[in-house]
Every structure is written in C-alpha cells, then in structure tokens.
C-alpha cells in the first residue's frame, strides 16, 4: 500500500501522476560497526521497512520535496542551490546534487514526495533509505544508468558534503545492493560484495531490533570525534587505514584513547570474518557470542554506547537472546538481538521492563531486498 500512498500524495500535492514510485529499505548491520569508515568489511542486511519516493520532473529549474512525516515542512530550491539545503531536506536534495556531479542533468527541476516507514533516529538508517530511493528514482527516470555502486557513493557524498555527517558507505550500499534473505559482505575499500546466506530462519532464530528511543544525530560531534581518532591512529601506525593495522601494532600505541579506538576497529574487522565463517559452516547460533564481544568493544573501547542501550542488551541476553549489541553509529538508537523463536516474547517483555527511558519499541526484522521501482 505504501507505494500507492506515495503516488496519491504526489497527485494531491501536484495535480498529476508521478513518473514513478521507488523505494529503498533501511538496514541493520549484523556485525562490522565503524569498520566502514576505516576501509574495512561490514555485514549488513536490508530490513523489511522501506521509504518510498514518488518522483516527477518539472519544466522549470525548481526542485520541491515534501514528506508526510510529522514535523517536516515542504522545501523548494532552485537547481543550482541544492547544496545549500538544510534540515531533513539535505538528504534528498543533497543526493540530487551529488548525482548532478556525476553527470545527471542539472538544468531540470523535480518534484519529490516522500513516504517513509523506517523509524527515524533508531540506528536503522532512515537517511540512507531516503537517499537511495531518490538516487534510484533520478537514475532511472533520467536514463543515467550510473550503476548502483555509484548511486551509493552519491548518497554518501550527500551526507558528507551537504548534511555534514562524516559517514562511510555501508548504509547506502546495503540499501541499494542487498538481496532478500542474505546479508551483504561489503569491502568498503574496493566495493567488492558477496551475498552471505545467514540461515537464521532455518536455525529457528529471529532478529529483533529493540529501539531504545534515545535519539542520535550523526552530524553532531561524537561520531566525527570517533572518526578523527581513527584517522589519527592510522597515521600514528603508518598505515592507510585501520583496516591495515595489526593487533600487535595497535597495542603498542602510546596514546590510550587512540589505542582503544583502534583496538575496536581491528577486532571488529576480525569479527566480521568470523561471523561469515560461522554461518557458512552452518552454525548461526554461534554468532551470538560474537555479537556480545562486538557490544563490549563498542561500549568499552569505542565508547559509543549509552546506559539506556546497555541495559537493553543485558535484558535481551538475560531473557534468552543468544547475543545482542548496539547497532548504528551509536550514542543511542537500537539494539540487535539474535533470539530463538520461542524466546521472542520473553525478550520483548524483558527489554520493556528494563528500560531506563521511554518504553522501547521491539520489532522483528528479516533480510529484505534492496532498492527497487514499485510503480
């Protein structure tokens, strides 16, 4: 129904049909947190929550964007000023600007209408879903045929250069490249990808995403500070990126903060490959302890967790989850829990009972397909 909702909203706003309706999913990263901006590997999968964009070209140079999300105001900018977009509109308009830098026509206007079902600020990458849906819409409707890796780069450039969030490319790549039923092993340096069948359903396991409802903003200082520490650590070690560092070299770093930040990246890179090995050998339940180690590293070495999230991780494991960890950029957001099907209700109850803040939202998610044209 949501594709039809986006189409109908476009009709109501503009008095005509859109040229097409496109959607892209949010994502959850099974393991590989903060390895993407260190040119390492990540293992995300797209989720069955999507953002739809109804799009149509105009006969002038005005670009309009509106959303049915409460609190968002319609925005209109002239084509040549898209990089000045601020607030929520910086994501779709920044993506259009980035695509224009890749050769998409920059002399025609657009009307974009957004309908989203990916929770905002929950660590599920609602921003990448929006960017990816816009990128696919513009690419297909203009016939640019840039290729999905290029569309992912455009979404990342929008976040880096327009929004001001120094994120890696994982979120956009997952939203555009994932296949139903699989995670995506992504080499963030080469952009090489491999579909990885997880086997969770066959093993009687369910992925729960527990939204702490503690909101975060990747354009604030915490994320940028962690990324700067990674760059500084790589420079101190004399390597192009922390992906290239060895554990022994990291432990020899004199600066305690840089050592802990680098230790997380190096050990998390190893955890990605361990999870791929475990699911490939038919042992998905053994992924649980790897998730636990990832959370401990993100909490203690990378210092991006918060008490409201830590209690949810502990509650989930105490109620039967085989493993759980914070997902997303950190400083709030959601917990991923890998849970036996028979323990799903108990884990949900335990997390709601343990919450330090607002009652968390518990969602069951499954690996879904990437961006697509719906209408």
From TrEMBL:
One of its GO terms (molecular function) is galactokinase activity. It comes from the Bacteria. Its EC number is 2.7.1.6. Residues 1-19 have a biased composition (Basic and acidic residues). Keywords: ATP-binding, Carbohydrate metabolism, Galactose metabolism, Kinase, Nucleotide-binding, Transferase. The keyword Cell division does not apply. Residues 91-177 form the GHMP kinase N-terminal domain. Residues 282-353 form the GHMP kinase C-terminal domain. It is an enzyme of class 2 (transferase). Belongs to the GHMP kinase family. GalK subfamily. This is Galactokinase.
């Amino acid at each position: 129904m949501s594709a039809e909702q986006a189409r109908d909203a476009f009709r109501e706003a503009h008095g005509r049909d859109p040229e097409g309706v496109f959607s892209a999913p949010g994502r959850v990263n099974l393991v590989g947190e903060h390895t993407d901006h260190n040119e390492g590997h990540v293992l995300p999968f797209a989720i069955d929550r999507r953002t739809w964009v109804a799009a149509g070209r105009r006969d002038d140079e005005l670009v309009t964007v509106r959303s049915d999300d409460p609190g968002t105001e319609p925005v209109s900018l002239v084509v040549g000023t898209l990089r000045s977009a601020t607030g929520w509109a910086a994501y779709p308009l920044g993506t259009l600007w980035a695509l224009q830098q890749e050769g998409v026509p920059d002399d025609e206007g657009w009307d974009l209408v957004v309908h989203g079902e990916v929770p905002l600020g929950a660590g599920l990458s609602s921003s990448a879903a929006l960017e990816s849906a816009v990128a696919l819409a513009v690419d297909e409707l203009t016939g640019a045929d840039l290729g999905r890796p290029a569309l992912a780069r455009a979404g990342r450039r929008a976040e880096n250069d327009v929004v001001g969030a120094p994120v890696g490319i994982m979120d956009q790549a997952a939203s555009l490249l994932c296949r139903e039923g699989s995670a995506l092993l992504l080499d963030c340096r080469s952009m090489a990808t491999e579909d990885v069948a997880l086997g969770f359903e066959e093993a009687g396991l369910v992925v729960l995403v527990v939204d702490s409802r503690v909101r975060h903003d990747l354009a604030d200082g915490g994320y940028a500070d962690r990324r700067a520490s990674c760059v500084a650590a790589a420079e101190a070690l004399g390597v192009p990126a922390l992906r290239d560092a060895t554990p022994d070299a990291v432990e020899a770093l004199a600066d305690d903060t840089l050592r802990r930040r680098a230790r997380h990246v190096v050990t998390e890179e190893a955890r990605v490959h361990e999870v791929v090995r475990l699911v490939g050998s038919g042992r998905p339940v053994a992924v649980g302890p790897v998730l636990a180690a990832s959370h401990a590293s993100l909490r203690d070495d990378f210092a991006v967790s918060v008490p409201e999230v830590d209690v949810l991780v502990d509650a989930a494991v105490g109620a039967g989850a085989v493993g759980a960890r914070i997902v997303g950029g950190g400083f709030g957001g959601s917990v991923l829990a890998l849970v036996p099907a028979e323990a799903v209700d108990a884990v949900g109850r335990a997390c709601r009972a343990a919450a330090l803040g607002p009652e968390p939202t518990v969602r069951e998610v499954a690996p879904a397909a990437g961006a697509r044209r719906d209408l």
